[in-house]
Amino acid sequence: MKKIVTLLLISSLFACAGNGLLPGTSADATPVPDISTTTAGNSDLGGLDAEYKIGVDDVVKVDVWKNPDLSVEVPVRPDGMISVPLIGDVEVGGKVPAEVAEIIKKKLSVYVRKPRVTVIMSQLNSHEYLSRVRVTGAVNEPMTLAYRQGLTVMDAVLEAGGLSKFASANKTMLYRKQNGESRVFPIKLNDILKKGDLRTNFDLAPGDVITIPERVF
User: Fold this and answer.
1) Using alpha carbons only, what angle is made at residue 57 by residues 51 and 106, rounded to the nearest 5 degrees?
2) What is the H or E stretch that residue 101 is in?
């Protein structure tokens, strides 16, 4: 009986190994996300606003997974079009990045089997003020700065000349408009700058406002 149980256990282990799974797990345990229509940004904060509409002079980056020859980074022309290898002109003006990714995906599927397409906004030139980031409160130079992909809370505060001597850094707040609603995210700015704790050093999005209050004496 023990011999039969052992053989069954070994067979089970080999079956799991053949499927790339460990015993006790299933193929549904860690599903692979669909990245065909992703846009830029940090996971917790949502990155670029999903409602951002592409305009003339914006720079769009199209990435086709495992097909670098089909990937491009191009400005939007005055006619609202961009050119993508293999499929030619694609109308992007007035559309959100997810829509553009889906359009390109469908056009490429004629030539490429199950293409995975990512559309990222590299530069937001058509909506200058909508795409700016503001830093206010207890910094040396309160300012508004142009959004750039990869801009973080720490980057913006350093651009604003750093903290003033009256700053209550760990009470910093990040204000963001998402899906028509205002959201507030606490930022531990002192921990970021003095302790290297980057957990709240979020990637910024167009229109974000960072406010650093002063200490109450």
Assistant:
1) 55
2) helix 97-108
Homologous superfamily of 132-212 in CATH?
Outer membrane lipoprotein wza domain like (3.10.560.10)
> Are 144 and 167 contacting, i.e. CB atoms less than 8 angstroms apart?
no
Rounded to whole angstroms, the Cα distance separating 115 from 105 reads 6
| pLDDT over 70, % of the chain | 76
d(CA 35, CA 114): 12
State pTM to two decimals. 0.52
Q: pLDDT of 126-135, one tens digit each? A: 887 777 899 9
Q: 183-208 b/e with 16+ CB inside 10 Å = b?
A: eebebbbbbbbeeeeeebbbbbbbbb
How far apart, in Å, are the Cα atoms of 182 and each of 34, 40, 144, 177, 178? 28, 20, 19, 4, 6
**Nearest 10 degrees: Cα torsion 115, 119, 120, 124:** 160
What percent of the chain has a predicted confidence (pLDDT) above 90? 61
Q: Where are the domains of the chain?
A: 35-127, 132-212
**Contacting residues for 77 by C-beta, under 8 A, at least 6 apart:** 56
> The domain at 35-127 falls in which architecture?
2-Layer Sandwich (3.30)
3-state SS track over 33-80 = CCCCCCCCCCCCCCCCCCCCCCCCCCEEEEEECCCHHHCEEEECCCCC
**What local confidence, expressed as pLDDT, does residue 138 receive?**
96
Dihedral class, residue 116 (left if φ above 0, else alpha if ψ from -120 to 50, else beta)? beta
